[in-house]
Here is the input.
Amino acid sequence: MGELQRRIVLVTGASGIWGRRVAARLVTYSAYHVIGLDEQRPTEAVVGLEFVQASVRDPMVADLMKARGVDTVCHLAFLESEQPQESAFEANVMGASRLLCACSDTGVRKVVVKSSMDVYGACATNPAFLGEDHPLQGNRRYGYVRDMVEIETLCSGFRQHVPGLMMSILRFPSIIGPTVDTPMTRLLSETWMPTLLGFDPMMQLIHEEDVVGALVHAVLNDVPGVFNAAAKDVLPLNKIRALAGKRPVSLLHPLAYWALRLSGAGSRLTRRLPIDPDYLRFTCVGDLARMSRELGFEPRHSAEAAVREFAERTVRRT
Amino acid sequence: MGDAESQELIAELERLTKQAQAAAPDSDPPLSSVQRLRACLEELIARYPEEMRSTALEPMREALSAGRLDADLLKGVWYLATYTLDHGVDLVRRHYSGEYQTDAWGLHREFLNAVRPFFAFLYKVYWRVETAGLENVPSEGRALLVANHSGQLPWDGTMLTLAVLSEHPAQRLARVLYSGMFPGVPFISSWLVRMGGTLAAVENCTRLLEQDELVVVFPEGYKGIGKTFRHRYVLARFGRGGFVRAALSSGAPIIPVAVVGAEETYISLHKSSTLAAITGMPYFPITPTFPWLGVLGFVPLPTKWTIDFGKPIPTAGYGRDAADNPALVLQLTDEVRSVVQDMLDDRLARRRSVFR
Here is the structure.
């Protein structure tokens, strides 16, 4: 196939954990030419990837898109910080905003965004399975949840007003795996895991490889819409903790909220409690009907197998 | 004690029990009688695995039937005790290492079996629950049980579930939809989920019915459970008809249920809005014992309960779009409410005493 017929895919955050892996998978498809975009140079280069060192907020990104005729953008540049930081907000929300504007201006055909089920928010009134149309009531205490809700609101605006731009938004639950660093793996990193006394919400998980798999699937196939994507089985939090071999530190929930309120940004508490206490208290589980029916993606790992693998690998590491 | 002697003793006991029964035909035989012992054993046997039945339980049952109190029986009791202990220890150990299974809603069957004896005691001994019309509950397929709510604490939900689980031939586990105040309450929230409950939301109700489950709803909500004593057995508003919408969109029949007896388990004289606001509860009852006696105030009165299951009201004929028709939803809600009220009035008219 000639160079001209190859579809050009732009992967943002190409030096990050997700960008690097998605790009590495995409370059194996001969029908695609992959451009990686990131502010930092990657620690190990992906063979076959054309790397451009720039921020997503850089105005030259629009020029790049126009000049190269970018077909699909896979947006994976996201700073996952617990504290609500202005710098992270700027990079995450303003970055997504500028990128989407550039896409709609330059005639990009499709955008794939990695989002999170955190955007629904964990609250007492949640039904046991949340559909994609459920209102976004994500908690604003933690920076990464707040920023993701903003990005999703932005995306739905673009979906309404720029109908020519196809958008696939994938909402993932807590991500677990032997090599990634996510709020969930941080929660399970110490021998003692903080829990809320008397609460044991049902939780969804997804294996790191399935996250990459789902994103690549959305790039390769044209599936417009918003999708929950998670492993099929739902586990109680206490089972996840026990399978991972961690012991519980049971906090009284009013004390946990109170301590969080008193300790402002940059506190050590959020590092020990990388997931907002609401998500350790109430259920926030997505309905996966659309994933099977419309997205056509099936995760390869069950949540239980993912936790067992995580436990095994972390024991071996230490 | 010789064999002949013990035989004689058992025969004497049996004779006395029969005499007592003849004098008072309605009374149950005492717990210690051979009849009751055998009934308990029969129930236990049903729950144990096959190998256990043949090695320990069968000889024991035979010994009991023959009225022998011999070595076989003692051996059987010993096996049973050690097995039960091992089983319990294993259950706790597996729970702590995470080696247990729940369904996607969080139902944990082993947890349910572990707490079941406590509720069975309340069901059989404490409240002496009687049921009528269980044949109206289908053995398979979806159905929505709609009951009156009463008694300050949601004991009626557990008793209703146990009635279907232990007395219906299909032994179905009904999924109870609980009110929105429970997800925020520690321990209770997780126990309810493990016992197969879920939040009372139209989405949950519809989804469970579409999975062909048996679902229990109490449409009165707080207004029903928190009733003061002088309003007993007068149904409150039946929510906003969410349960009817769920039944219509899934085509599930509605089975009206009347629970009598739960209303008198606590005598709520007054609802304190001040204390409710302070404690964050949706209602705060003042009873002769609560809050004055603290935890003791939670002990319910040993009233006599009856649970009546009414004739199913079909909804499949209206079509799936009928759930969006507010007039129909309102009409069906009122219909179900009046059927439940009639069933309550009927049972109350036939009731001889609150405690008997």
Summary: Chain A touches chain B at residues 124-129, 131, 196-200, 202, 233-236, 238-244, 253, 281-283, 285 (CB under 8 Å).
